[in-house]
């Protein structure tokens, strides 16, 4: 199982690389990695398992955070209507987005960042995304709210972008 020790932190080169598209159909190894990533998120949101293994409660994790520069990430979260979004996504991309921007109140954090960083992180309010599931099926989703923000945060990891890169500098 994945624990916090498997997650690379700021300064690790994998977090600043552009990740490579994943060969489809998924190899057994890539599928296993993605399943392990989804399992980590589920474990991290289970109070007993999270406490036992000292896991930070994660809603998303990208392969580069495991030192694997492949274009895949996992999401496991519920939106404000309690709809569950639980996916392993391969070669994900935004196909269209709102002009309107949104941000998490209080800013963002990251499983690979062990410090608090203040500042709003601007994200598209709504995105239409495409990608492939762990079963090699093409998927298209319309996301808003936390699912939309989390998707954009994870997609940035595949392009070597950290959330704080998007916080505008103090305008004096
Ligand atoms: C880094 C951490 C703080 C653990 C963050 N969790 C999080 O934001 N949880 C959350 C947010 C809400 F708005 C409502 C709620 F119910 C729970 C997270 O998992 N990530 C994933 C990550 O680091 N992926 O690389 C960072 C988040 C920033 C924006 C969305 C994902
Ligand atoms: Zn992150």
UniProtKB/TrEMBL annotation:
Bound cofactor: record note: Binds 1 Fe(2+) ion.
CDD domains in UniProt: Pep_deformylase
Source taxon at top rank: Bacteria
GO biological process: translation
One of the record's GO molecular function terms: peptide deformylase activity
Record's keyword terms, sorted: Hydrolase, Iron, Metal-binding, Protein biosynthesis
SUPFAM superfamilies: Peptide deformylase
The UniProt record lists the keyword Signal: no
One Pfam family named in its UniProt record: Pep_deformylase
EC number(s) from the headed UniProt entry: 3.5.1.88
Binding site for Fe cation: 110, 153, 157
Active site: 154
Catalysed reaction equations from the record: N-terminal N-formyl-L-methionyl-[peptide] + H2O = N-terminal L-methionyl-[peptide] + formate
Cofactor list: Fe(2+)
Family: Belongs to the polypeptide deformylase family.
HAMAP family: Pep_deformylase
Function: Removes the formyl group from the N-terminal Met of newly synthesized proteins. Requires at least a dipeptide for an efficient rate of reaction. N-terminal L-methionine is a prerequisite for activity but the enzyme has broad specificity at other positions.
NCBIfam families referenced in this protein's UniProt entry, alphabetically: pept_deformyl (TIGR00079)
PANTHER family: PEPTIDE DEFORMYLASE (PTHR10458), PEPTIDE DEFORMYLASE 2 (PTHR10458:SF8)
The name this protein goes by in its record: Peptide deformylase
């Amino acid at each position: 199982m994945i624990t916090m020790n498997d997650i690379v932190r700021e300064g690790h080169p994998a977090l600043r690389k552009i990740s490579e598209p994943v060969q489809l159909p998924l190899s057994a190894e890539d599928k296993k990695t993605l399943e392990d990533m989804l399992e980590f998120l589920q474990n991290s949101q289970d109070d007993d398992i999270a406490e036992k293994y000292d896991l930070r409660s994660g809603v998303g994790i990208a392969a580069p955070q495991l030192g694997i520069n492949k274009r895949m990430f996992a999401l496991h979260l519920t939106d404000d209507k309690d709809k569950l979004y639980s996916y392993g996504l391969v070669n994900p991309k935004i196909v269209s987005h709102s002009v309107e921007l949104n941000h998490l109140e209080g800013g963002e954090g990251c499983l690979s960042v062990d410090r608090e960083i203040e500042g709003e992180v601007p994200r598209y309010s709504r995105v239409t995304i495409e990608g492939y599931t762990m079963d090699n099926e093409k998927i298209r989703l319309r996301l808003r709210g936390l699912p939309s923000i989390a998707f954009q945060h994870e997609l940035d990891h595949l392009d070597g972008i950290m959330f704080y890169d998007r916080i505008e500098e103090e305008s004096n």
